[in-house]
Amino acid sequence: MTDTVLAAKTAAADALAAGRTADAVVRAAQDANAVFDRVWARARGSIDAGGTIACKAGCGWCCHQHVAVLPAEAIAVAAAIADTPLAAKFDVDAKAILGTENAARKKARIPCPFLIEGACAVYAVRPNRCRAIHSRDLDFCRSRYEFGRSPVGLPAKPVPLEPVLMGDQALKGMGQALAAAGIDVEPVELTHAIAALRRDPHLAADYARGRPFPAAARAPADPELE
Protein backbone atom coordinates (compact mmCIF):
# COMPACT_ATOMS: atom_id res chain seq x y z
CA MET A 1 0.00 0.00 0.00
CA THR A 2 1.43 3.36 -0.99
CA ASP A 3 1.83 6.20 1.47
CA THR A 4 -0.93 8.16 -0.29
CA VAL A 5 -3.41 5.28 -0.13
CA LEU A 6 -2.65 4.76 3.55
CA ALA A 7 -2.85 8.47 4.38
CA ALA A 8 -6.19 8.87 2.60
CA LYS A 9 -7.55 5.69 4.19
CA THR A 10 -6.49 6.85 7.64
CA ALA A 11 -7.96 10.32 7.15
CA ALA A 12 -11.29 8.93 5.99
CA ALA A 13 -11.37 6.26 8.69
CA ASP A 14 -10.72 8.86 11.38
CA ALA A 15 -13.67 10.89 10.11
CA LEU A 16 -15.93 7.83 10.07
CA ALA A 17 -14.91 6.93 13.62
CA ALA A 18 -17.34 9.63 14.77
CA GLY A 19 -20.20 7.42 13.58
CA ARG A 20 -21.96 6.39 10.39
CA THR A 21 -23.68 9.69 9.71
CA ALA A 22 -23.99 11.88 6.64
CA ASP A 23 -21.73 14.48 8.26
CA ALA A 24 -19.04 11.85 8.90
CA VAL A 25 -19.26 10.71 5.27
CA VAL A 26 -18.79 14.31 4.11
CA ARG A 27 -15.73 14.70 6.32
CA ALA A 28 -14.32 11.38 5.10
CA ALA A 29 -14.54 12.51 1.47
CA GLN A 30 -13.14 15.96 2.20
CA ASP A 31 -10.28 14.68 4.36
CA ALA A 32 -9.24 12.00 1.87
CA ASN A 33 -9.28 14.50 -0.99
CA ALA A 34 -7.26 16.89 1.16
CA VAL A 35 -4.56 14.20 1.27
CA PHE A 36 -4.40 14.34 -2.52
CA ASP A 37 -4.18 18.14 -2.40
CA ARG A 38 -1.16 17.95 -0.10
CA VAL A 39 0.60 15.26 -2.14
CA TRP A 40 -0.04 17.13 -5.37
CA ALA A 41 1.20 20.41 -3.88
CA ARG A 42 4.48 18.76 -2.93
CA ALA A 43 4.91 17.20 -6.38
CA ARG A 44 3.73 20.17 -8.44
CA GLY A 45 7.18 21.72 -8.86
CA SER A 46 8.71 18.63 -10.43
CA ILE A 47 5.68 18.15 -12.71
CA ASP A 48 5.87 21.77 -13.87
CA ALA A 49 9.50 21.18 -14.80
CA GLY A 50 8.23 19.01 -17.63
CA GLY A 51 5.85 21.72 -18.80
CA THR A 52 3.82 24.21 -16.77
CA ILE A 53 0.26 23.25 -15.92
CA ALA A 54 -2.02 25.60 -17.85
CA CYS A 55 -5.31 24.97 -16.05
CA LYS A 56 -6.89 28.12 -14.61
CA ALA A 57 -10.23 29.70 -13.83
CA GLY A 58 -11.87 30.76 -17.05
CA CYS A 59 -11.04 27.74 -19.21
CA GLY A 60 -13.48 25.02 -18.14
CA TRP A 61 -13.16 23.06 -21.40
CA CYS A 62 -13.13 19.74 -19.54
CA CYS A 63 -16.27 20.52 -17.53
CA HIS A 64 -18.75 19.28 -20.14
CA GLN A 65 -18.82 15.55 -19.45
CA HIS A 66 -19.90 12.99 -16.89
CA VAL A 67 -17.68 12.68 -13.83
CA ALA A 68 -17.27 9.37 -12.00
CA VAL A 69 -17.26 9.88 -8.21
CA LEU A 70 -17.69 7.89 -5.05
CA PRO A 71 -21.14 8.48 -3.50
CA ALA A 72 -19.46 10.11 -0.51
CA GLU A 73 -18.03 12.80 -2.79
CA ALA A 74 -21.47 13.54 -4.24
CA ILE A 75 -22.85 13.85 -0.72
CA ALA A 76 -20.09 16.35 0.13
CA VAL A 77 -20.98 18.53 -2.85
CA ALA A 78 -24.73 18.26 -2.17
CA ALA A 79 -24.16 19.29 1.44
CA ALA A 80 -22.08 22.28 0.34
CA ILE A 81 -24.81 23.67 -1.92
CA ALA A 82 -27.75 22.96 0.39
CA ASP A 83 -29.72 26.10 1.26
CA THR A 84 -27.71 28.22 -1.20
CA PRO A 85 -28.68 29.71 -4.58
CA LEU A 86 -26.50 27.05 -6.20
CA ALA A 87 -29.05 24.41 -5.22
CA ALA A 88 -31.81 26.05 -7.26
CA LYS A 89 -29.43 26.58 -10.18
CA PHE A 90 -28.43 22.93 -10.03
CA ASP A 91 -32.05 21.76 -10.06
CA VAL A 92 -32.67 23.70 -13.27
CA ASP A 93 -29.40 23.00 -15.10
CA ALA A 94 -29.27 19.30 -14.20
CA LYS A 95 -32.40 18.62 -16.26
CA ALA A 96 -30.36 18.83 -19.47
CA ILE A 97 -27.93 16.19 -18.15
CA LEU A 98 -30.12 13.62 -16.43
CA GLY A 99 -30.69 10.56 -18.57
CA THR A 100 -28.12 11.71 -21.12
CA GLU A 101 -25.25 9.45 -22.14
CA ASN A 102 -21.78 10.88 -21.78
CA ALA A 103 -21.00 10.94 -25.51
CA ALA A 104 -24.22 12.83 -26.24
CA ARG A 105 -23.55 15.27 -23.44
CA LYS A 106 -20.06 16.06 -24.72
CA LYS A 107 -21.36 16.47 -28.27
CA ALA A 108 -24.04 18.88 -27.04
CA ARG A 109 -21.47 20.71 -24.87
CA ILE A 110 -23.67 20.62 -21.79
CA PRO A 111 -21.62 22.09 -18.92
CA CYS A 112 -21.43 21.05 -15.31
CA PRO A 113 -24.19 22.83 -13.36
CA PHE A 114 -21.45 24.27 -11.16
CA LEU A 115 -19.45 25.86 -13.99
CA ILE A 116 -20.10 29.59 -13.74
CA GLU A 117 -18.23 31.96 -16.06
CA GLY A 118 -15.55 29.33 -16.59
CA ALA A 119 -14.93 28.73 -12.89
CA CYS A 120 -15.99 25.95 -10.52
CA ALA A 121 -18.51 27.19 -7.99
CA VAL A 122 -17.84 24.22 -5.70
CA TYR A 123 -14.07 24.23 -6.09
CA ALA A 124 -13.36 23.58 -2.40
CA VAL A 125 -15.39 20.34 -2.42
CA ARG A 126 -14.88 19.26 -6.05
CA PRO A 127 -14.47 15.51 -6.52
CA ASN A 128 -11.19 13.68 -6.83
CA ARG A 129 -11.41 13.29 -10.62
CA CYS A 130 -11.80 17.04 -11.04
CA ARG A 131 -8.80 17.65 -8.77
CA ALA A 132 -6.52 15.18 -10.52
CA ILE A 133 -6.93 16.07 -14.20
CA HIS A 134 -4.50 18.74 -15.44
CA SER A 135 -3.30 19.94 -18.82
CA ARG A 136 -0.20 21.69 -20.10
CA ASP A 137 -1.91 22.99 -23.25
CA LEU A 138 -5.20 24.88 -23.28
CA ASP A 139 -5.31 24.71 -27.09
CA PHE A 140 -5.51 20.95 -26.75
CA CYS A 141 -8.42 21.22 -24.32
CA ARG A 142 -10.20 23.81 -26.45
CA SER A 143 -9.82 21.70 -29.59
CA ARG A 144 -11.17 18.62 -27.81
CA TYR A 145 -14.15 20.69 -26.67
CA GLU A 146 -14.86 22.38 -30.00
CA PHE A 147 -13.99 19.62 -32.48
CA GLY A 148 -13.81 16.43 -30.44
CA ARG A 149 -10.19 15.84 -31.44
CA SER A 150 -6.66 16.96 -30.63
CA PRO A 151 -5.17 19.92 -32.52
CA VAL A 152 -3.39 18.97 -35.72
CA GLY A 153 0.35 18.63 -35.18
CA LEU A 154 0.20 18.00 -31.44
CA PRO A 155 2.21 14.79 -30.97
CA ALA A 156 0.92 13.70 -27.58
CA LYS A 157 -1.88 14.33 -25.13
CA PRO A 158 -0.43 16.99 -22.79
CA VAL A 159 -2.09 15.62 -19.66
CA PRO A 160 0.47 14.51 -17.06
CA LEU A 161 -0.17 11.07 -15.63
CA GLU A 162 1.34 11.72 -12.20
CA PRO A 163 -1.54 13.67 -10.62
CA VAL A 164 -4.02 11.16 -12.06
CA LEU A 165 -2.18 8.33 -10.32
CA MET A 166 -1.98 10.34 -7.09
CA GLY A 167 -5.71 10.95 -7.32
CA ASP A 168 -6.35 7.24 -7.89
CA GLN A 169 -4.37 6.43 -4.78
CA ALA A 170 -6.27 8.92 -2.62
CA LEU A 171 -9.56 7.65 -4.04
CA LYS A 172 -8.52 4.06 -3.32
CA GLY A 173 -7.76 4.94 0.29
CA MET A 174 -11.07 6.75 0.68
CA GLY A 175 -12.92 3.77 -0.75
CA GLN A 176 -11.13 1.29 1.49
CA ALA A 177 -12.12 3.24 4.61
CA LEU A 178 -15.74 3.54 3.50
CA ALA A 179 -15.96 -0.13 2.56
CA ALA A 180 -14.46 -1.16 5.91
CA ALA A 181 -17.26 0.78 7.58
CA GLY A 182 -19.86 -1.11 5.54
CA ILE A 183 -20.61 1.83 3.24
CA ASP A 184 -21.24 1.43 -0.51
CA VAL A 185 -18.37 2.46 -2.79
CA GLU A 186 -19.89 1.66 -6.20
CA PRO A 187 -19.07 4.70 -8.40
CA VAL A 188 -21.84 7.06 -9.44
CA GLU A 189 -22.04 10.03 -11.82
CA LEU A 190 -21.75 13.41 -10.16
CA THR A 191 -24.81 15.24 -11.54
CA HIS A 192 -27.05 12.17 -11.45
CA ALA A 193 -26.00 11.39 -7.88
CA ILE A 194 -26.58 14.91 -6.60
CA ALA A 195 -29.98 14.92 -8.31
CA ALA A 196 -30.83 11.71 -6.45
CA LEU A 197 -29.79 13.34 -3.19
CA ARG A 198 -31.91 16.39 -3.99
CA ARG A 199 -34.95 14.16 -4.68
CA ASP A 200 -34.55 12.11 -1.52
CA PRO A 201 -33.62 14.12 1.58
CA HIS A 202 -33.03 10.89 3.53
CA LEU A 203 -30.64 9.33 1.02
CA ALA A 204 -27.42 10.72 2.53
CA ALA A 205 -28.23 9.51 6.03
CA ASP A 206 -29.45 6.14 4.75
CA TYR A 207 -26.30 5.77 2.63
CA ALA A 208 -24.13 6.36 5.70
CA ARG A 209 -25.98 3.46 7.34
CA GLY A 210 -25.32 1.13 4.40
CA ARG A 211 -27.99 1.87 1.77
CA PRO A 212 -26.63 1.81 -1.82
CA PHE A 213 -27.35 4.73 -4.12
CA PRO A 214 -30.21 4.17 -6.60
CA ALA A 215 -29.41 2.98 -10.12
CA ALA A 216 -30.44 6.37 -11.53
CA ALA A 217 -27.37 7.89 -9.87
CA ARG A 218 -25.10 5.91 -12.20
CA ALA A 219 -26.19 7.55 -15.50
CA PRO A 220 -27.27 5.70 -18.68
CA ALA A 221 -23.71 4.69 -19.63
CA ASP A 222 -20.54 4.07 -17.65
CA PRO A 223 -19.08 7.41 -16.52
CA GLU A 224 -15.76 8.34 -18.07
CA LEU A 225 -13.39 11.22 -17.65
CA GLU A 226 -10.84 11.76 -20.40
User: Helix coverage percent of residues?
Assistant: 40-55%
- The number of E-state strands comes to 4
Largest sheet properties: 2 strands, antiparallel
The whole-number mean of residue pLDDT values reads: 92
Gyration radius, to the nearest Å?
17 Å
Gross morphology:
globular
State the end-to-end CA separation.
26 Å
Question: What is the H/E order?
Answer: HHEHHHEEHHHEHH
Spans where pLDDT lies below 50 across 5 or more residues: none
What would your notes on this structure say?
With 226 residues, this protein is mainly α. 53% of the residues lie in helices and 4% in strands. The protein has helices at residues 3-16, 22-48, 71-81, 85-93, 102-108, 128-132, 138-147, 161-180, 190-199, 203-208; strands spanning 68-69, 115-116, 119-120, 188-189. The strands form two sheets. A two-stranded antiparallel sheet has the order 1-4. A two-stranded antiparallel ribbon has the order 2-3. It is globular and about 55 Å long. The mean pLDDT is 92.
